[in-house]
Amino acid sequence: MEWTMRLPSQEGRRVGRGWTAAALASIPLVMTLGNSMLIPVLPVMERQLGITPLQSSLLITMYSVVAILFIPLAGYASDRIGRKNVIIPSLLLAAAGGGMAGWAAWRMDDPYGWIIAGRMLQGLGAAGAFPIVLPLVGDLFPDEEEASRCLGTIETANTFGKVLSPILGAMLAGIVWFLPFFSFPVFCLLSAAMMVWSIQAPARRERPLPFRDFAAAVKVIFRREGRWLAAVFAIGGLLMLVLFAFLFFLSSRLEEVYHIDGVRKGWVLAIPLGALCFASFVAGRLIGGRKERMKWGAVAGCILSAAALLLVPVDSSLFFWLALFSAAGIGIGAALPCLDALITEGIEKKERGTVTSVYSSLRFIGVAVGPPLAAWLMSSGVAPLLFLLSALALVGGGLAFWLIHPEMDGGKENESGDISRH
Question: Sorted alphabetically, which PANTHER family does this protein's record hold (predicted)?
Fold first, then answer.
């Protein structure tokens, strides 16, 4: 795979390492902008296109559905032909999808179908972009502590994209309602250029296994290490469901109860997301290469989120809600880099792309399920939704506590189900 950090010309150069991390972090930032930036613009699109709220929600859902379907294929391809050879074409494909959606909205009389097609093309590109970054970090940073710091930076960029998305989307749509579509190709091309400049392919590669042998090897991995892997997969999906469900809930309540909308709503939503972003950054720095810290970071983050969400129905003041949702964001932000690091450091390089693709698919499922689940439960009041989200976060903490058992010096899982030293 792409062993940029081991090239002689870059040995010991901190600036080179910084550019590598920046190039990797640009991908989740761009992919998050491409989806979340449309959320505050959907009501405007409904008026401009003459569509229903259900039809506008498909602009978000179809992106995620296509990504879910193709992430495993992209992960397998990255193990076969190299991470960079999958990521860069995927970024270009996502850029083309954004351009298609923007052109249709600008030039066509009845553009909805073509906009959906463009969004599906964006989702196809997204499948081969962000999910492949996680195994690439493990390839580029063989030192576990450096890899953990980089993963924290990547989760921070992912979260910062969520912070920036509602603000930037509302600002661009205030100029021209379809401008967010056209902005996405620009972001993708910048990220692709950073990848070309900063990530270098190796002179030699390992000969890939035939598909039958590869499938057998992956089956052995899941049979041997299935317990802790299943826990990490489930926790990642649950936390993304909880995050997007409470963001949908908070966004709706800001308009309905507090009459805050537009760019102002974007800034308010940025408060809990900013807390999540900061927690991701700090957690990535603190866990280092210690698997024990990764486990307890995930446990503590889930419990903090569960406790904060459980208290939300107690008081309906905006200050109280923002404080609790920020605490929940801190918990999720602390847990996610721990989960990323457990996978990238616990799986061998040659199978890492396939395994992390399954993890990324479950995270996308959480993103897709959270908002409609919140919309359905909100009709019954505040308490049922928040109690359910609290329970799901607590389940995640329980899975981390009972199913992830690293030794004190860390490593990958042994046959007894514990994660032992490499």
Answer: CHLORAMPHENICOL EFFLUX PUMP RV0191, PURINE EFFLUX PUMP PBUE
Query: Dihedral (C-alpha) 414, 419, 421, 422: value to the nearest 10 degrees?
Result: 70
- Identify whether the C-beta of residue 194 lies closer than 8 Å to the C-beta of residue 26: yes
DSSP 3-state of 208: coil
**Per CATH, the architecture of 8-420 is what?**
Up-down Bundle (1.20)
Q: Which residues contact 102 (CB under 8 A, 6 or more apart)?
A: 118, 178, 179, 181, 182, 184, 185
Would you say 63 and 181 are in contact if contact means Cβ atoms under 8 Å apart? no
Pure H helices in 128-210: 130-140, 144-175, 179-198
Q: How far apart are CA 30 and CA 286, in angstroms?
A: 26
3-state secondary structure of 7: coil
Using an 8 Å Cβ cutoff, are 419 and 247 in contact? no
198: nearest Cα among 17, 377, 336, 411: 17
| pTM confidence score | 0.77
How wide is the angle at C-alpha 417 spanned by C-alphas 414 and 422, nearest 5°?
25
Q: Report the sign of the C-alpha dihedral through residues 250, 256, 261, 267, in that order.
A: negative
Neighbouring residues of 127: CB distance < 8 A, sequence distance ≥ 6: 66, 67, 68, 69, 70, 71, 73, 74, 90
* pLDDT, tens digit (0-9, with 9 covering 90-100), for 175-206: 898 999 999 999 999 999 999 988 765 444 55
pLDDT tens by residue, 398-412: 999 999 987 644 444
Q: What is the DSSP string of 44-81?
A: HHHHHHT--HHHHHHHHHHHHHHHHHHHHHHHHHHHHH
CB 122 within 8 A of CB 130: no
Angle at 130 between CA 125 and CA 135, to 5 degrees: 125
Alpha-carbon span 186 to 340, nearest angstrom = 28
CA distance 45 to 56: 7
Residues 410 and 421: beta-carbon distance below 8 Å: yes
